[in-house]
């Protein structure tokens, strides 16, 4: 979905080689995930994406770069689309660029990044640096990270969108911070996306933010779907059994259970779990397939988790 | 910016996974091989010079280790993972200058007593206990942290040396303590207990040493 740089253009041969090296990529189309429509007729994206905070910050370590490339390959083999990063995430952007180049920049990529600088005049410069790290010409989505210098950045991002320099724009927060201000920005500005923390335990957004996003036609990316990993780790460590009725909504694992809860909210477009494990990425992606819980089942999921 | 700190866990402030942090020390050893031995010898040389009555060369040797750790660990390996690591690198350079100045300014002359013994404890922790604790508790031998090259053992030795000396110079202790706190937080989040307890134990040792007379138990001033 993204437009790519010279590296990508010259990489047509590389793409063919990538399919040879990563044969699973060729079969990706046969494993379609549920997709969510983007507001404003902007197409659709798979409901499970991938975050990169901590997990892709491996620096120049060739061994770990190879391991993350395998995670990316599994993500795309499973039909993944949206990948989210930020200049704040250390080397994550360049590690992504390394992996994507190895994989020949799969067509399903929906590249989402952020602007994270106090310098309100540095929006374009930082976006260009981030794009260079990914090996892209432009991003499908650029967001103002944690509302840092948001007024100046948002104004520039709007101009960039107008000029076709970015596909969509948005704002982010996490951990339920500054929700009042977040809501005011949503009300007063034309946003395509918002990103915030939403999971079965952290449901602050349900009261006002998510209804407002629906009303205004703003796509929603849910970060920290496992509360930074502690939620699913706790369930697995305790050996908590899935409820008998989980099969009704095609849940085979706790990852299914937790992610399906998130992406079944009518306002949520996509969840972005982060992982360093090929096994876990496949587990995450499986949650984007099959039946999704309805409102009554979602309430049951909340009660089940509270008792687990 | 941090409007609701209660929603954060300590791990939310650590930008790397335990795997990456552990690998950092393997990569450090890969990149400096075989010079670890040389820098360990420099550390031992500094200690020997201190024991033999003090000399500017003790500070010089220690300064070389801090410079090496600043460049090789902080600037080259750590900075790509954490933008704040470049600041840590410059702090290590400042530390190199401090130990050099203390060394040139008359330096450290060995002194006995309880405080010196506590200094020996910190030095041994840096040269032997912490490095060996890694492989004995499941970390790779390839990640063996060598004093003089790896920052945490170097910091421990640097904290221990002034305690063994007279006059004591606390100024060279600030940056090592700050590094130990940072390192312990990362290891705490990463789940490696020996690494996590280094800062609390070192600070407790310094606390006891602060209250200890430098010439108690036989360490009479000359």
TrEMBL record, chain A:
Matching PANTHER family: D-THREO-ALDOSE 1-DEHYDROGENASE, NADP-DEPENDENT OXIDOREDUCTASE DOMAIN-CONTAINING PROTEIN
Stored InterPro entries: AKR2_Oxidoreductase (IPR053135), NAD(P)_OxRdtase_dom_sf (IPR036812), NADP_OxRdtase_dom (IPR023210), TAT_signal (IPR006311)
Classification via PROSITE patterns: TAT
Species per Swiss-Prot/TrEMBL record: Halovibrio salipaludis
The organism's place on the tree of life at top rank: Bacteria
Official protein name in the record: Aldo/keto reductase
CDD domains in the cross-refs: AKR_PA4992-like
Domain NADP-dependent oxidoreductase: 48-288
SUPFAM superfamilies: NAD(P)-linked oxidoreductase
Automatic annotation (TrEMBL), chain B:
Top-level taxon of the source organism: Bacteria
Protein keywords: Membrane, Transmembrane, Transmembrane helix
Transmembrane segments: 33-51, 58-77, 83-104, 116-134, 168-189, 195-215
Record carries keyword Transmembrane: yes
Signal peptide residues on this chain, from the entry's feature table: none
Name this protein carries in UniProt: MFS transporter permease
Naturally occurring in which organism (per UniProt): Halovibrio salipaludis
């Amino acid at each position: 979905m993204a437009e790519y740089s010279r590296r990508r253009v010259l990489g047509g041969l590389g793409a063919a080689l990538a399919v040879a090296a990563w044969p699973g990529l060729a079969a990706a189309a046969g494993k379609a995930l549920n997709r969510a429509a983007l507001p404003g007729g902007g197409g659709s994206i798979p409901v499970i994406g991938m975050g990169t905070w901590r997990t892709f910050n491996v620096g120049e370590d060739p061994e770990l770069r190879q391991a993350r490339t395998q995670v990316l390959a599994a993500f795309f083999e499973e039909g993944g689309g949206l990948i989210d990063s930020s200049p704040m995430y250390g080397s994550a952007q360049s590690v992504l660029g390394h992996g994507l180049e190895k994989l020949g920049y799969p067509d399903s990529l929906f590249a989402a990044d952020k602007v994270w600088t106090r310098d309100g005049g540095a929006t374009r410069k930082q976006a260009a640096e981030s794009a260079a790290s990914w090996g892209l010409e432009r991003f499908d989505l650029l967001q103002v990270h944690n509302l840092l210098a948001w007024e100046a950045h948002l104004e520039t991002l709007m101009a960039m969108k107008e000029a076709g320099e970015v596909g969509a724009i948005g704002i982010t927060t996490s951990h339920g911070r500054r929700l009042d201000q977040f809501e005011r920005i949503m009300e007063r500005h034309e946003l395509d996306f918002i990103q915030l923390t939403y999971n079965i335990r952290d449901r602050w957004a349900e009261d006002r933010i998510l209804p407002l996003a629906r009303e205004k036609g703003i796509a929603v990316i849910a970060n920290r779907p496992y509360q930074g990993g502690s939620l699913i780790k706790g369930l697995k460590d305790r050996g908590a059994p899935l409820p008998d009725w989980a099969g009704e909504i095609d849940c085979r694992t706790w990852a299914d259970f937790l992610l399906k809860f998130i992406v079944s909210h009518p306002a949520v477009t996509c969840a972005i779990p982060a992982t360093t494990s090929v096994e876990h990425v496949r587990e995450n992606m499986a949650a984007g397939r099959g039946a999704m819980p309805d409102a009554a089942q979602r309430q049951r999921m909340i009660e089940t988790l509270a008792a687990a | 910016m941090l409007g609701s700190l209660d929603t954060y866990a300590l791990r939310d402030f650590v930008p790397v996974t335990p795997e990456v942090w552990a690998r950092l020390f393997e990569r450090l050893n890969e990149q400096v091989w075989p010079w670890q031995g040389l820098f360990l010898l420099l550390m031992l040389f500094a200690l020997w010079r201190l024991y033999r009555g003090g000399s500017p060369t003790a500070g010089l040797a220690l300064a070389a280790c801090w410079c090496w750790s600043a460049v090789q660990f902080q600037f080259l390996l750590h900075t790509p993972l954490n933008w704040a690591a470049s600041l840590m690198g410059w702090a290590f350079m400042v530390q190199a200058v401090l130990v050099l100045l203390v060394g040139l300014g008359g330096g450290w002359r060995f002194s006995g007593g309880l405080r010196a013994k506590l200094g020996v404890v910190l030095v041994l922790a840096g040269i032997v206990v912490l490095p060996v604790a890694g492989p004995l508790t499941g970390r790779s031998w390839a990640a063996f942290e060598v004093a003089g090259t790896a920052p945490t053992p170097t910091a421990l030795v640097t904290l221990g040396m002034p305690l063994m000396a007279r006059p004591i110079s606390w100024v060279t202790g600030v940056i090592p303590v700050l590094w130990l706190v940072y390192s312990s937080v990362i290891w705490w989040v990463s789940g490696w207990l020996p690494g996590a307890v280094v800062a609390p134990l070192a600070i407790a040792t310094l606390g006891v040493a602060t209250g200890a007379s430098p010439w108690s138990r036989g360490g009479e001033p000359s």
